[in-house]
Write a structure and sequence with these properties.
Helix content is 73%, strand content 0%. It is built from eight helices and no strands.
């Protein structure tokens, strides 16, 4: 039997923790070398605990999102709220100051346009004065040119002739003038003639006393037209003796206007004569056709012995009444 000193140490022997170390009565370790082993073991445990804490799962919310993600979303919502608040504040300020800004803009526009319109009115007045003065100079120059190289007696004759032409033309164009009476008489005759022709076209019985036949407009109307045409022709010649003036002057425009009026009245009376002649030609042709048709019917009835003479006479009277 071997002694205790001869026994080999057990390979499975482990180092006891610091809590199970034997201490002396005074509280110090019995084996001083075991202190370094305990320190190393404590450091290993501390390293393990630190690694375990790093690998611990993150705290999750009730929806399963990390706490950090929830914090980021809250910050984003807060930024949106602040942006909306700033926009709302800006709109509020804009709305609260819109009435004042609009009033200022309106007052500014009123002042601006008032000044502008005042300038335009002054400019228009200046231009009108300049135009009037320029036209007055043109008129004076035209009169001087119209009377150049002409004797005083000739100038008096021209002035009297011009005044007489103006008076006669105005007199004829008045409501009671000769030309106006000729136009009114023709319109009355033309209306009556159109009524007769319309009644014939639509087989409407006409008044035998008034609308039986189309009559001529009358010799009095023809005489008035002839007299007025002769007088207007004389006025045309008298206006030509006045010569011509500058067209950009009042005198030149007056001479041209008088000549145009006289020529237009002559042309209108020629047109009235032409219309009256055509309508009377149509009336003559209608009468010839009616007479021819009536004579043929009378001859055919005269050959027809079965018709009585009394019926023939009644038929002739009926044809003339229509």
């Amino acid at each position: 039997m071997k002694g205790v000193s001869d026994q080999k140490p057990n390979s499975q022997t482990t180092v006891k923790p610091a809590a199970f170390r034997s201490r002396s009565a005074s509280g110090q370790d019995v084996n001083p070398k075991s202190r370094s082993v305990d320190d190393k073991h404590a450091k290993v445990l501390a390293i393990r605990n630190n690694n375990a804490s790093k690998q611990a799962p993150k705290i999750v919310t009730s929806l399963g999102a990390p706490a950090v993600a929830k914090s980021d979303s809250i910050d984003a919502l807060a930024d949106d709220d602040r942006q909306l608040q700033r926009e709302l504040l800006r709109l509020h300020i804009l709305h609260s100051t819109s009435a004042d800004v609009h009033g200022q803009w309106r007052d500014s526009a009123t002042r601006h346009f008032h000044v502008r319109f005042s300038e335009l009115a002054e400019r228009h007045t200046e231009i009108a004065d300049i135009s009037f003065q320029t036209q007055e100079l043109r008129n004076r120059s035209a009169v001087v040119h119209w009377c150049r190289n002409v004797q005083a007696s000739e100038i008096d004759r021209r002035v009297q002739t011009l005044s007489k032409c103006i008076h006669e033309i105005n007199e004829n164009l008045e409501a009671s003038g000769k030309f106006s009476n000729i136009i009114e008489s023709f319109e009355t005759w033309h209306t009556r003639t159109r009524q007769i022709q319309g009644s014939r076209k639509h087989n409407i019985p006409a008044d035998a006393a008034v609308l039986a036949n189309v009559e001529e407009i009358g010799a009095g109307w023809q005489n008035d037209v002839d007299a007025l045409q002769r007088r207007l022709s004389l006025l045309t010649g008298e206006l030509r003796t006045l010569g011509s003036a500058r067209t950009n002057s009042a005198l030149g425009r007056l001479l041209v206007l008088l000549q145009d009026l006289v020529l237009d009245m002559l042309a209108e009376m020629d047109c009235l004569r032409s219309i009256e002649y055509e309508m009377m030609a149509q009336e003559k042709l209608w009468l010839e056709n009616q007479i021819t048709s009536l004579s043929l019917k009378v001859q055919s009835e005269m050959r027809d012995k079965r018709k009585s003479p009394s019926k023939t006479r009644s038929y002739i009277g009926q044809a003339f009444s229509t």
